[in-house]
Design goal:
about 35% helix, YefM-like fold, single chain, 3 strands, about 15% strand, about 100 residues, elongated, alpha+beta
Length: about 100
């Protein structure tokens, strides 16, 4: 697996040439804005494994053994057997709002 670095937008702007050299050497660079990944830099044609997370926090948790990734795909839940008359949730919500005003 190629090295991965996570950097902020300001750091990328200030050191763009240096990060582009790293990308040429095969490093994958994740760019964050307020700790949210907004872009990924990699060599043209490079592919990333689907199990790699773009979120650096999740990646660090996986690396530290705090989180274990699922080994099978998600399956849809069975439909709920609970059936209520139409408008029940709206009525409950309105009742709760009325109680809050008292």
């Amino acid at each position: 697996m190629a090295d991965t670095k996570t950097i902020g937008v300001k750091d990328l702007k200030n050191n763009l040439s240096a990060y582009l050299r790293e990308v040429r050497r095969g490093t994958r660079v994740l760019v964050t804005d307020r700790n949210v990944v907004v872009a990924e830099l990699h060599e043209p044609g490079a592919t990333c494994r689907p199990d790699e997370f773009a979120d650096p926090i999740v990646s660090s948790w996986v690396g530290d053994g705090i989180v274990i990734l699922p080994t099978r795909k998600r399956e849809p839940l069975a439909p709920s057997s609970v059936r209520l008359p139409a408008g029940t949730s709206r009525r409950w919500l309105e009742d709760a709002r009325e109680e809050g005003r008292e």
